[in-house]
Amino acid sequence: MKVAVIGLGYVGAVTSACLAKLGHHVVGVDRMAGKVERINAGEAPITEPGLDDLIAEMRATGRLEATQRLDAAVGATELAVVCVGTPTGADGSPDMAAMDIVVGDIGSALSANGRPYVVALRSTSLPGTSERYRALLRERVGRDDVDVCSHPEFLREGSAISDFESPAFIVVGTDDEHTAAVVRELYAPFVASSPDLFHVMAPAAAEMLKYACNAYHAVKVAFANEIGALAATLGLDSHAVMGAFVKDTKLNTSRAYLRPGFAFGGSCLPKDLRALAFLAGRSDLRLPLLESAIPSNQRHLARTLDRVLSLSPKRVAVWGISFKSDTADVRESPVVDLLHGILAAGVPAQWHDPDVAGALTRRGGSDSVAYLEERIPHALDLHVPNAAELAVVADLHVVSKFDQSFAEVLRAAKAPVLDLNGSYRDAISADRYVGLLW
Questions:
Q1: Which of 397, 393, 400 is nearest to 429 (CA)?
Q2: Residue 181 covered by a domain
Q3: Of the residues 109, 176, 187, 193, which has the fewest C-beta atoms closer than 10 A?
Q4: E strands along 223-371, which residues?
Q5: Pick from 172, 203, 234: which residue ends a domain?
């Protein structure tokens, strides 16, 4: 393919050279004459391991060149990959001034040639950006055969070439099949060997994904540093602690817990977070990340209650009140708190949970039942043992955990189903399925 890469900073310079290595003819574009001159001289405009050699090699093949003329680059190519900077503005928002100029200049160039064209935004930008630029570009050009998609990059300075050549995934945010196919063609060798690498998402979702990745990386660093600081305060080897921590690839370094859903609870997580905060406070040490986990969880619970009440139910059925599946433990269960909130708002509610039902026969000997009665004194009177009976009396079903018996009853029910964890998407008809946050 013939590709224009606009912006020759860290992302653009690496992208240009690596796309040329994949066999494409690449025209790099930058307003700074020095960057253009260095590329054309076979030198890297930035410091990045291996980039000088790669650019020299690609210049020698004739597949890489650079220019200051954006109009000429767009006129000679079928796809523009935009890599201009979006630095932080005074209010924390990305400064889109450079992007505004580039998209405007692309529009001017496309107005003159009348060819179909795809613009892939590699620059990090807020959700909705690519869709906004697509509308602006089409309005300026006066045609619908030009498209703008999100194409986030996941390159780290210092290892950018290896990150490009061994990607965890390749993402394009578009609702247009042709655009997706054009971007897929850029990475044909990668996709041919690993088809699952290529992900097509909604444009705004792709933009959000980039922020989610970087935020999670920042959270991981902050988490390790807070645990390390507390360990050091106690005279412990923080590297030994975290060295053992990362060996657990089942829960600690895995996809476990990383799915949007309902709040956390139970007899361990809240208790241990409080204990860590206490331990740090005893040493006059603040752990803002860990201290914020419980308030964040409570805020999520409040959002969930707002979501339930926004549906204006007259009677609610809550399916599952233990803090997770396959347990009768309701201690600090967020579902119990949600049930309490629904009742406090004056909405009648009842519940059904086979896991908890067995504990009801051990009243007086169950910490779980004692907690339930303390939180909601008349909670046991709200228990409905018969699932079919509960299914017909409510005009809203709130489901906290997956249970096949729940799915079978709710599939036949008539009222909407609010799914707190996204487990029933395939079990409930779309006209009755209500997601928590999506």
A1: 397
A2: yes
A3: 193
A4: 316-319, 349-352
A5: 203
Q: Where does residue 314 fall: left (phi above 0), alpha (psi -120 to 50 degrees), or beta otherwise? A: alpha
Residues 191 and 322 in one domain: no
Element (H, E) at 67: strand 64-67
Q: Which amino acid, 413?
A: A
pTM for the predicted model, two decimal places: 0.91
* pLDDT score for 365: 46
Whole-angstrom distance, CA of residue 372 vs CA of residue 271: 17
Percent of the chain with pLDDT over 70: 98
18 in active site: no
For 25, the enclosing helix (H) or strand (E) is strand 25-29
pLDDT number for residue 267:
86
Angle between helices 51-61 and 33-40 (to 10 degrees): 70
Phi and psi, residue 104, nearest 5°:
-65, -40
pLDDT at 364: 47
CA distance between the termini of the chain: 37
Question: What distance in Å separates the CA atoms of residue 222 and residue 306, rounded to the nearest whole number?
Answer: 31
In terms of residue numbers, what domain contains 178? 2-203
Q: How far apart are CA 58 and CA 19, in angstroms?
A: 10
Q: Distances in Å between the alpha carbon of 186 and those of 102, 106, 151, 389?
A: 21, 20, 12, 57
Residue 57 lies in a domain: yes
**Which is the catalytic residue, given 83, 149, 213, 268?**
268
Overall domain count for the chain:
2
Q: Smallest Cα–Cα separation from 327: which of 356, 349, 305?
A: 356
